[in-house]
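Lecture notes, part 5. Sequence design as translation. It can be helpful to think of inverse folding as translation between two languages: the language of shapes and the language of residues. The source text, in structure tokens, appears below.
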């Protein structure tokens, strides 16, 4: 149970608590009791005051759960619809582009902004082994209401869904278990398992919109220099130094992204650590875009996941992806 100041109450709707998911490892957080905090005990190992750590939920008017994770001066909103992050702020300043003025929130339309989940394929599936163009975009997980439980002990939300393999593959079914945990860092762990009877490839990406007033000044370290340019028909290109700011618009899949990257923006620096990922995506459509539910593109999409090559899972086989973010002021 989270420690609260005397007289402070939180209205929490009934939710299953204490879910411990097999195969999911979360950072251990040693929470202090209120009395320990008052007696001058040190904060927990993440440097976050116990009284500020909490997970609460509410029901959106569209009928799905929205969770608020708090730790220190950070707050993250996670939606059961789409299984995605809606916002992340640190010190009252947004780290993630929310797009709340233009995004459609109806429980049917993919939410554009935050950090959508692309699964079981990315884009139109053209980077899957067959190279065919699929119907839909980024899979159906982003328009699915995920099952959800709270793990208060780890300051986390656990979301689960089952999704079919991409058209023309398998056919089989994948389960995906997402764990969003907030302490000093924001961590996302995805466990994907083939729960069907045939082998099939899949793709997975965290499509994160990083908020910035000057996207043309953004720089990224650790992407590598080889990329597929979607503005040039996904042809392979090479640049001398990918850490330099890029002219907008751009839509690229980097092939040699490192497990540790750094995104430097005008407002802050985002450290990104990954495990089980292949490739990274860099995207900004420019101010002349025609996306109807997107206003001014004051963001850089730097997306991590398993993009290319894709991963083939045999029945009962699973793959774990870990993405961890840390925001630091400039």
């Amino acid at each position: 149970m989270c420690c609260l100041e005397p007289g402070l109450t939180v209205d929490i709707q009934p939710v299953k608590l204490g879910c411990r998911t097999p195969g999911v490892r979360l950072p251990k957080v040693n929470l202090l009791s209120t009395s320990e905090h008052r007696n001058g005990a040190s904060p927990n190992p993440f440097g976050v005051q116990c009284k500020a750590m909490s997970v609460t939920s509410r029901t959106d008017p569209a009928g799905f759960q929205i969770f608020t994770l708090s730790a220190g001066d950070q707050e993250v909103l996670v939606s059961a619809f789409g299984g995605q992050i809606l916002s992340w702020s640190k010190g009252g300043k947004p780290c993630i582009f929310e797009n709340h003025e233009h995004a459609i929130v109806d429980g049917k339309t993919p939410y554009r902004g935050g950090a959508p989940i692309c699964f079981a394929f990315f884009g139109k599936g053209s980077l899957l082994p067959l190279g065919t163009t699929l119907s839909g975009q980024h899979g159906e997980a982003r328009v699915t209401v995920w099952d959800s439980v709270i793990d208060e002990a780890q300051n986390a939300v656990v979301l689960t869904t089952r999704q079919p393999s991409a058209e023309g593959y398998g056919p089989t079914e994948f389960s995906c278990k997402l764990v969003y945990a907030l302490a000093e860092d924001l961590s996302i762990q995805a466990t994907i398992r083939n729960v069907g009877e045939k082998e099939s490839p899949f793709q997975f990406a965290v499509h994160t919109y990083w908020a910035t007033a000057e996207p043309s000044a953004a720089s990224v370290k650790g992407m590598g220099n080889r990329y597929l340019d979607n503005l040039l028909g996904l042809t392979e290109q090479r640049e001398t130094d990918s850490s330099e700011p890029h002219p907008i618009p751009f839509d690229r899949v980097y092939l040699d992204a490192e497990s540790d990257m750094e995104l430097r923006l005008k407002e802050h620096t985002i450290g990104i650590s990954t495990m089980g990922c292949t490739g990274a995506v860099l995207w900004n459509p420019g101010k002349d875009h025609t996306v109807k539910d997107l206003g001014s593109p004051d963001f850089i999409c730097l997306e991590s996941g398993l993009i290319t090559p894709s991963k083939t899972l045999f029945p009962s086989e699973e793959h774990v992806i870990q993405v961890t973010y840390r925001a630091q002021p400039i």
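The translated text above is only one of many valid answers, since several sequences can fold into similar shapes. The two ends are 34 Å apart (CA to CA).
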